[in-house]
Amino acid sequence: MPRVSAWFVRASLGHLVFGFSVGALLLADRGVPFAPGLWALRGAHLEVLLVGWLVQLVMGVAIWIFPRFALRRAPHRSAITAWLAFGLLNGGVVLAALGGLLAVAGRLAEIAAAASFVAHLWGRVSPAGLSEI
Amino acid sequence: MPPLSRWYIKLALVYFVAALAVGALQVLQAPLRLPAVLAVTGPTYVHMLVVGWITQMIFGVAYWMFPKYAPPPPAPAAPRGSNALAVATLILLNLGLLVRVVVEPVRAWRPEALPGWPLIVAALAQWLAAVGFAINTWPRVKEK
After folding, report:
1. For residue range A38-59, what is the model confidence (pLDDT) as tens digits?
2. How much is the ipTM here?
3. Does B117 touch chain A (CB under 8 A)?
4. How far is Cα A54 from Cα A62, in angstroms, rounded to an integer?
5. CB-based burial label for B114 (10 Å; 0-12, 13-18, 19+)
6. Taking CB atoms and an 8 Å cutoff, what residues of chain B touch A30?
7. Counted domains in chain A
8. Confidence category of residue B109, pLDDT binned at 50, 70, 90
């Protein structure tokens, strides 16, 4: 898989482990309360697993497997948009998970990441091959 | 498709239908006067959908389709990583989620009806499943 996809997937695995770690603490506290302050991390749990794990994995795999004919037309721009999406998404998830005003900056970074990802992938959504679907 | 991926994917499909059924029962509880425990199944519904369906589907498809790993000799050939770890991940994920699905809503409805410690077991099992998947998948994420 391309280097940028490998970074997307590795980062998503990191978010998976972190998100499940926080989630496990929250679930354990629901069974036998030991640290009520943990529930302040519920927002981070959601952000990390939804965007950092699931959305990021989808983005990484899409960059890996979508048809690559369009990449030949503008290889440099395609690389920039993919890496920009990776950086903005991960920065955005971290900021959004921290909460408060940083969450606003995080969400804006995530929007920019989505826009960069769309710019990268749009031209690759093409009828390559013989599929009739 | 390897047999283990079939297990992951079929269990994910079961959770998909079951999660939507729980979601439907949750919103029908009040109008149809169904058992009150259904009113507190919000977290159960979300986790059946996100963990049981989506995450489990990803685990199964990744085990099947990610690039195969060729460890350097003399290590035994294990192109999809450790099969034992992947089996343990499947069992732990489903054991943990099943315990949660049963215990969490009952305790939210009547805390005295069930002890809380099974939720610690559920938490630990699901966490171990996530760590196991990450360990087994990491060497297969290869740049080319």
Report:
1. 999 999 999 999 999 999 999 9
2. 0.93
3. yes
4. 12
5. middle
6. 104, 107, 116, 119
7. 1
8. very high
